[in-house]
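Chain and conformation:
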Amino acid sequence: MRPVILRGNAQGAYARDALTEPPLRGPARGAAAGAVPSGAATGRKARTRRRDPAPSRIAYKLHRLWLTPAFRLFLRAGLPMLVTFVLAYAWLAEPERRQVLLSGVSDLTRALKSRPEFMVSLVAIEGASPDVAAEIRAGFPLELPVSSFDLDLEMMQAEIADLDAVEAAELRLRPGGVLEISVTERVPVVVWRSRDGLVLLDLKGNRVADLDRRAARGDLPLIAGEGAGDKVAEALSILRAAQPLVRDLRGLVRVGERRWDVVLTGERTIKLPERYPVAAIQQVIALDQAQDLLARAVTVVDMRNPSRPTLRLAPAARAELRRIRAYQTGDLQ
Protein backbone atom coordinates (compact mmCIF):
# COMPACT_ATOMS: atom_id res chain seq x y z
CA MET A 1 0.00 0.00 0.00
CA ARG A 2 1.44 3.37 -1.03
CA PRO A 3 1.93 5.93 1.68
CA VAL A 4 -0.15 9.13 1.56
CA ILE A 5 1.95 12.30 1.76
CA LEU A 6 0.15 15.34 3.24
CA ARG A 7 1.44 18.76 2.47
CA GLY A 8 0.84 22.18 3.82
CA ASN A 9 -2.58 22.95 5.43
CA ALA A 10 -3.85 19.43 4.88
CA GLN A 11 -1.14 18.10 7.11
CA GLY A 12 -2.10 20.52 9.93
CA ALA A 13 -5.84 19.70 9.69
CA TYR A 14 -5.13 16.01 9.89
CA ALA A 15 -3.03 16.55 12.95
CA ARG A 16 -5.80 18.53 14.69
CA ASP A 17 -8.36 15.83 13.94
CA ALA A 18 -6.08 13.20 15.29
CA LEU A 19 -5.66 15.13 18.54
CA THR A 20 -9.36 15.93 19.09
CA GLU A 21 -10.92 12.51 18.30
CA PRO A 22 -10.70 9.92 21.08
CA PRO A 23 -8.73 6.86 20.37
CA LEU A 24 -10.59 3.75 19.26
CA ARG A 25 -10.69 0.80 21.57
CA GLY A 26 -11.70 -2.82 21.39
CA PRO A 27 -13.97 -3.84 18.58
CA ALA A 28 -14.21 -0.32 17.28
CA ARG A 29 -10.49 -0.29 16.68
CA GLY A 30 -10.75 -3.53 14.79
CA ALA A 31 -13.64 -2.20 12.80
CA ALA A 32 -11.70 0.90 11.94
CA ALA A 33 -8.76 -1.16 11.00
CA GLY A 34 -10.86 -3.26 8.68
CA ALA A 35 -12.84 -0.45 7.15
CA VAL A 36 -15.23 -1.37 4.38
CA PRO A 37 -16.43 0.58 1.42
CA SER A 38 -19.25 3.09 1.80
CA GLY A 39 -21.91 0.89 0.06
CA ALA A 40 -21.46 -1.97 2.54
CA ALA A 41 -21.64 0.43 5.52
CA THR A 42 -24.98 1.81 4.29
CA GLY A 43 -26.54 -1.66 4.10
CA ARG A 44 -25.39 -2.53 7.59
CA LYS A 45 -26.89 0.70 9.00
CA ALA A 46 -30.23 -0.12 7.40
CA ARG A 47 -30.20 -3.52 9.02
CA THR A 48 -29.37 -2.12 12.49
CA ARG A 49 -31.96 0.71 12.36
CA ARG A 50 -34.01 1.14 15.62
CA ARG A 51 -37.50 -0.52 15.74
CA ASP A 52 -40.55 1.79 15.58
CA PRO A 53 -42.15 1.85 19.13
CA ALA A 54 -45.69 2.55 17.79
CA PRO A 55 -47.97 -0.57 17.90
CA SER A 56 -49.30 -2.16 14.80
CA ARG A 57 -52.86 -1.58 13.68
CA ILE A 58 -54.00 -5.05 14.82
CA ALA A 59 -52.37 -4.64 18.23
CA TYR A 60 -53.99 -1.21 18.61
CA LYS A 61 -57.46 -2.57 17.80
CA LEU A 62 -57.02 -5.51 20.18
CA HIS A 63 -55.93 -3.15 22.95
CA ARG A 64 -58.93 -0.90 22.39
CA LEU A 65 -61.23 -3.94 22.37
CA TRP A 66 -59.81 -5.13 25.70
CA LEU A 67 -60.56 -1.73 27.23
CA THR A 68 -64.28 -2.25 26.46
CA PRO A 69 -66.14 -3.24 29.73
CA ALA A 70 -68.60 -5.52 27.94
CA PHE A 71 -65.77 -7.44 26.23
CA ARG A 72 -63.90 -7.90 29.51
CA LEU A 73 -67.08 -9.08 31.22
CA PHE A 74 -67.70 -11.55 28.44
CA LEU A 75 -64.18 -13.00 28.71
CA ARG A 76 -64.27 -13.21 32.50
CA ALA A 77 -67.83 -14.50 33.02
CA GLY A 78 -69.68 -15.12 29.79
CA LEU A 79 -67.08 -17.23 28.06
CA PRO A 80 -66.54 -19.62 31.03
CA MET A 81 -70.28 -19.99 31.44
CA LEU A 82 -70.72 -20.66 27.74
CA VAL A 83 -67.98 -23.28 27.76
CA THR A 84 -69.47 -24.90 30.87
CA PHE A 85 -72.93 -24.96 29.31
CA VAL A 86 -71.66 -26.52 26.10
CA LEU A 87 -69.75 -29.20 27.98
CA ALA A 88 -72.71 -29.97 30.26
CA TYR A 89 -75.09 -30.13 27.32
CA ALA A 90 -72.77 -32.45 25.47
CA TRP A 91 -72.44 -34.69 28.54
CA LEU A 92 -76.19 -34.76 29.24
CA ALA A 93 -77.07 -35.54 25.65
CA GLU A 94 -76.85 -39.23 26.51
CA PRO A 95 -80.12 -40.52 28.12
CA GLU A 96 -78.18 -42.99 30.26
CA ARG A 97 -76.10 -40.21 31.78
CA ARG A 98 -79.20 -38.17 32.55
CA GLN A 99 -80.79 -41.14 34.27
CA VAL A 100 -77.68 -41.72 36.36
CA LEU A 101 -77.60 -38.06 37.36
CA LEU A 102 -81.29 -38.00 38.34
CA SER A 103 -80.93 -41.20 40.33
CA GLY A 104 -77.98 -39.79 42.20
CA VAL A 105 -79.82 -36.56 43.02
CA SER A 106 -82.88 -38.53 44.17
CA ASP A 107 -80.79 -40.78 46.42
CA LEU A 108 -78.99 -37.79 47.89
CA THR A 109 -82.26 -35.98 48.56
CA ARG A 110 -83.80 -39.04 50.19
CA ALA A 111 -80.77 -39.54 52.38
CA LEU A 112 -80.82 -35.90 53.45
CA LYS A 113 -84.53 -35.94 54.30
CA SER A 114 -84.18 -39.15 56.30
CA ARG A 115 -81.53 -37.81 58.65
CA PRO A 116 -82.59 -38.04 62.33
CA GLU A 117 -82.33 -34.29 62.94
CA PHE A 118 -84.97 -33.66 60.26
CA MET A 119 -87.50 -36.29 61.42
CA VAL A 120 -90.71 -35.34 63.31
CA SER A 121 -91.77 -37.98 65.81
CA LEU A 122 -94.22 -36.12 68.07
CA VAL A 123 -97.11 -33.64 67.62
CA ALA A 124 -97.91 -31.35 70.59
CA ILE A 125 -101.14 -29.31 70.57
CA GLU A 126 -101.16 -26.34 72.95
CA GLY A 127 -104.11 -24.15 73.98
CA ALA A 128 -106.85 -26.40 72.62
CA SER A 129 -109.63 -28.18 74.45
CA PRO A 130 -109.76 -31.99 74.22
CA ASP A 131 -112.54 -31.86 71.62
CA VAL A 132 -110.68 -29.37 69.43
CA ALA A 133 -107.41 -31.28 69.80
CA ALA A 134 -109.15 -34.48 68.75
CA GLU A 135 -110.64 -32.69 65.73
CA ILE A 136 -107.20 -31.40 64.73
CA ARG A 137 -105.60 -34.84 65.02
CA ALA A 138 -108.43 -36.38 63.02
CA GLY A 139 -108.03 -33.78 60.28
CA PHE A 140 -104.27 -34.36 59.96
CA PRO A 141 -103.50 -38.07 60.42
CA LEU A 142 -99.70 -37.92 60.22
CA GLU A 143 -97.77 -41.17 59.94
CA LEU A 144 -94.98 -40.55 62.42
CA PRO A 145 -92.07 -40.36 62.14
CA VAL A 146 -92.16 -38.13 59.09
CA SER A 147 -89.54 -35.87 57.55
CA SER A 148 -90.00 -32.16 58.20
CA PHE A 149 -89.36 -31.55 54.48
CA ASP A 150 -92.55 -33.45 53.68
CA LEU A 151 -94.72 -31.20 55.89
CA ASP A 152 -96.45 -28.18 54.37
CA LEU A 153 -96.73 -26.06 57.51
CA GLU A 154 -98.45 -23.13 55.78
CA MET A 155 -101.16 -25.37 54.35
CA MET A 156 -101.66 -27.12 57.68
CA GLN A 157 -101.87 -23.79 59.52
CA ALA A 158 -104.48 -22.47 57.07
CA GLU A 159 -106.62 -25.60 57.37
CA ILE A 160 -106.46 -25.59 61.18
CA ALA A 161 -107.40 -21.90 61.25
CA ASP A 162 -110.45 -22.73 59.10
CA LEU A 163 -111.91 -24.90 61.85
CA ASP A 164 -115.00 -23.37 63.46
CA ALA A 165 -113.63 -23.46 67.00
CA VAL A 166 -110.19 -22.05 66.09
CA GLU A 167 -109.56 -18.33 65.93
CA ALA A 168 -105.82 -18.53 65.17
CA ALA A 169 -103.19 -21.23 64.85
CA GLU A 170 -99.40 -21.25 64.76
CA LEU A 171 -97.17 -24.17 63.79
CA ARG A 172 -93.45 -24.46 64.47
CA LEU A 173 -90.83 -27.18 64.65
CA ARG A 174 -89.03 -27.55 67.95
CA PRO A 175 -85.72 -29.31 68.56
CA GLY A 176 -86.07 -32.98 69.26
CA GLY A 177 -88.45 -33.73 66.40
CA VAL A 178 -91.54 -32.07 67.92
CA LEU A 179 -94.21 -30.33 65.82
CA GLU A 180 -95.91 -27.79 68.10
CA ILE A 181 -99.39 -26.54 67.20
CA SER A 182 -100.45 -23.49 69.23
CA VAL A 183 -104.20 -22.88 69.01
CA THR A 184 -106.31 -19.92 70.09
CA GLU A 185 -109.90 -21.02 70.41
CA ARG A 186 -112.97 -18.90 69.83
CA VAL A 187 -114.90 -18.15 73.00
CA PRO A 188 -118.68 -18.66 72.65
CA VAL A 189 -120.78 -15.81 74.06
CA VAL A 190 -124.32 -16.65 72.89
CA VAL A 191 -126.47 -19.56 71.81
CA TRP A 192 -128.21 -18.97 68.47
CA ARG A 193 -131.37 -20.90 67.71
CA SER A 194 -131.45 -21.09 63.93
CA ARG A 195 -133.31 -23.24 61.43
CA ASP A 196 -130.48 -25.77 61.59
CA GLY A 197 -130.61 -26.05 65.37
CA LEU A 198 -128.61 -24.61 68.24
CA VAL A 199 -125.23 -23.06 67.43
CA LEU A 200 -122.60 -21.45 69.63
CA LEU A 201 -121.36 -18.09 68.36
CA ASP A 202 -118.45 -15.89 69.42
CA LEU A 203 -118.45 -12.11 69.74
CA LYS A 204 -117.93 -11.61 65.99
CA GLY A 205 -120.74 -13.98 65.08
CA ASN A 206 -118.40 -16.78 64.01
CA ARG A 207 -119.66 -20.30 64.47
CA VAL A 208 -117.88 -22.14 67.28
CA ALA A 209 -119.72 -25.44 67.53
CA ASP A 210 -123.12 -27.09 67.36
CA LEU A 211 -125.14 -27.65 70.51
CA ASP A 212 -127.34 -30.65 71.14
CA ARG A 213 -129.53 -29.12 73.83
CA ARG A 214 -130.02 -25.72 75.40
CA ALA A 215 -129.35 -26.93 78.93
CA ALA A 216 -125.78 -27.84 77.95
CA ARG A 217 -124.89 -24.10 77.89
CA GLY A 218 -127.45 -22.56 80.18
CA ASP A 219 -124.87 -19.97 81.23
CA LEU A 220 -125.05 -18.27 77.82
CA PRO A 221 -127.89 -16.02 76.62
CA LEU A 222 -130.18 -17.18 73.84
CA ILE A 223 -130.85 -15.35 70.59
CA ALA A 224 -133.07 -16.44 67.73
CA GLY A 225 -134.30 -15.31 64.33
CA GLU A 226 -132.89 -14.81 60.86
CA GLY A 227 -129.82 -12.60 60.83
CA ALA A 228 -129.35 -12.75 64.59
CA GLY A 229 -125.92 -14.31 64.13
CA ASP A 230 -124.71 -11.18 62.34
CA LYS A 231 -125.70 -8.86 65.22
CA VAL A 232 -124.18 -10.59 68.22
CA ALA A 233 -122.47 -7.46 69.52
CA GLU A 234 -125.73 -5.47 69.42
CA ALA A 235 -127.58 -8.29 71.15
CA LEU A 236 -125.02 -8.37 73.94
CA SER A 237 -125.33 -4.61 74.47
CA ILE A 238 -129.12 -4.99 74.83
CA LEU A 239 -128.67 -7.87 77.26
CA ARG A 240 -126.26 -5.85 79.37
CA ALA A 241 -128.77 -3.00 79.55
CA ALA A 242 -131.53 -5.48 80.53
CA GLN A 243 -129.65 -6.84 83.55
CA PRO A 244 -132.39 -5.70 86.00
CA LEU A 245 -134.73 -8.07 84.11
CA VAL A 246 -132.32 -11.00 84.09
CA ARG A 247 -134.59 -13.21 86.24
CA ASP A 248 -137.48 -12.89 83.79
CA LEU A 249 -135.36 -12.69 80.64
CA ARG A 250 -135.56 -15.64 78.25
CA GLY A 251 -133.75 -14.25 75.23
CA LEU A 252 -133.81 -12.01 72.19
CA VAL A 253 -135.56 -12.58 68.86
CA ARG A 254 -134.46 -10.88 65.66
CA VAL A 255 -137.50 -9.64 63.70
CA GLY A 256 -137.28 -8.99 59.97
CA GLU A 257 -133.49 -8.75 60.22
CA ARG A 258 -134.10 -5.16 61.38
CA ARG A 259 -134.88 -5.03 65.08
CA TRP A 260 -135.12 -7.05 68.33
CA ASP A 261 -137.86 -8.36 70.60
CA VAL A 262 -137.04 -9.03 74.25
CA VAL A 263 -138.83 -12.17 75.37
CA LEU A 264 -139.72 -12.47 79.08
CA THR A 265 -141.32 -15.21 81.08
CA GLY A 266 -145.12 -15.36 81.17
CA GLU A 267 -145.32 -14.82 77.37
CA ARG A 268 -144.43 -11.17 77.71
CA THR A 269 -142.60 -9.28 74.97
CA ILE A 270 -140.87 -5.93 74.73
CA LYS A 271 -140.74 -4.70 71.12
CA LEU A 272 -137.65 -2.56 70.59
CA PRO A 273 -137.16 0.00 67.80
CA GLU A 274 -134.76 -0.43 64.92
CA ARG A 275 -132.66 2.50 66.09
CA TYR A 276 -131.38 3.02 69.64
CA PRO A 277 -132.70 -0.24 71.12
CA VAL A 278 -130.55 0.13 74.26
CA ALA A 279 -132.16 3.47 75.13
CA ALA A 280 -135.62 1.93 74.61
CA ILE A 281 -134.99 -0.98 76.98
CA GLN A 282 -133.59 1.43 79.55
CA GLN A 283 -136.83 3.45 79.28
CA VAL A 284 -138.92 0.32 79.91
CA ILE A 285 -136.84 -0.55 82.97
CA ALA A 286 -137.31 2.99 84.30
CA LEU A 287 -141.11 2.69 83.87
CA ASP A 288 -141.09 -0.68 85.58
CA GLN A 289 -139.11 0.62 88.52
CA ALA A 290 -141.39 3.66 88.84
CA GLN A 291 -144.84 2.08 88.22
CA ASP A 292 -144.30 -1.69 88.34
CA LEU A 293 -145.12 -1.85 84.66
CA LEU A 294 -144.06 -5.42 84.10
CA ALA A 295 -145.79 -6.62 87.27
CA ARG A 296 -149.16 -5.77 85.76
CA ALA A 297 -151.21 -7.90 83.36
CA VAL A 298 -149.26 -6.69 80.33
CA THR A 299 -148.27 -9.04 77.52
CA VAL A 300 -146.64 -6.58 75.07
CA VAL A 301 -144.74 -3.35 75.65
CA ASP A 302 -144.39 -1.77 72.20
CA MET A 303 -141.44 0.65 72.11
CA ARG A 304 -141.09 0.83 68.34
CA ASN A 305 -142.10 4.48 68.74
CA PRO A 306 -140.19 5.46 71.90
CA SER A 307 -142.07 8.74 72.22
CA ARG A 308 -145.40 6.87 72.38
CA PRO A 309 -145.11 3.52 74.20
CA THR A 310 -148.05 1.15 73.65
CA LEU A 311 -149.24 -1.60 76.01
CA ARG A 312 -151.19 -4.74 75.21
CA LEU A 313 -153.05 -6.26 78.12
CA ALA A 314 -153.66 -9.90 78.82
CA PRO A 315 -157.08 -11.34 77.77
CA ALA A 316 -158.38 -11.44 81.36
CA ALA A 317 -157.25 -7.88 81.95
CA ARG A 318 -158.90 -6.72 78.72
CA ALA A 319 -162.19 -8.34 79.76
CA GLU A 320 -162.01 -6.70 83.15
CA LEU A 321 -161.25 -3.34 81.54
CA ARG A 322 -164.27 -3.67 79.25
CA ARG A 323 -166.46 -4.52 82.22
CA ILE A 324 -165.27 -1.44 84.11
CA ARG A 325 -165.84 0.82 81.13
CA ALA A 326 -169.31 -0.60 80.58
CA TYR A 327 -170.13 -0.06 84.21
CA GLN A 328 -168.93 3.54 83.99
CA THR A 329 -171.02 4.25 80.92
CA GLY A 330 -174.09 2.61 82.40
CA ASP A 331 -174.26 -0.20 79.88
CA LEU A 332 -173.75 -2.69 82.68
CA GLN A 333 -176.34 -2.73 85.52
Notes: The chain is about 45% helix and 20% strand. Residues 57-88 form one domain. The longest strand covers residues 166-174.
